[in-house]
Structure formats: structure tokens, C-alpha cells
Request: fold
Amino acid sequence: MEDFAQDYYLLIFIASLGVLQIVASYSGLRSILFFKRSSVARLGGMAAIIAAFVWFFASEPRNINDTRGGLDANNQALLFALASLTAVIATLIGSSLVNVRMRGNSTSPEDGLEALKETSFLQALSESLSRWWKKWQKQMQKYFSG
Reply:
């Protein structure tokens, strides 16, 4: 069962990476893309999804009941959530490293995901944290002053 769970985790991780690339390319979030061109990111995303599913289902028989070594629903849901979260984190960190030279306008915390159209995730995060660090005493003062 461990091998089956690891294979399922890998399937969801790779497919989620592909989905994130496709969504980011259509949304115009250029700093999350691993490729500079949106069309290449879409093709790469589709290739990742198709390759993951073909590998998963063609490598071994996967239609296995949970009483015979398959995944029960609870484990499957947990693995899906963990693999998807890992794919989001890997996308944010990996794309920030790939797009390290992408320097957009200074972003504000109110920009949200729109900031990722011009700046990398790590750059936007560092700018938000530095703004928060400079203003945290003033923001907290109203809660702790008498």
C-alpha cells in the first residue's frame, strides 16, 4: 500500500503542477510561470497532466479496492490535499527562483494575487513583510495602550 500511496501522491503533485501552470497562464500571473511564454506554459501543463495520468494508470493495475491494498477515502483525501499543497509551494518557490530577475513596480499588500503579474512571489512576500515589520508597533499600539 505504501507504493500505491506514493504513486498516487506523485500523480496528484505532477498533475497539480500542470493545472497551476495552465491557470497562471490564462490569468496573466506571469511570475508563477516556469516558462516565459504563456503558450509554452499551457502546453507544458497539459503534458504534465497527461503524462502523470498515463504513467499512473498504465504502469500497474490501479483499480484496486481499499480492502485489497488500495487507498481508502480518508487516506486518498489526505494525500490529495498534501500533494496539492506541495505543488502550490513548489510552484511559488520554483517560479520565484526561475523569475528572480522579474522586477515589477513596488507592490502593496492590498494587491493580493494581482502583484504576481509583475513581481515574483518571494519578492512580493519580502516587500509585504518589510512593510509589516516597519508598521507593526504602530498597528499593535491601539490594542495594547490604555
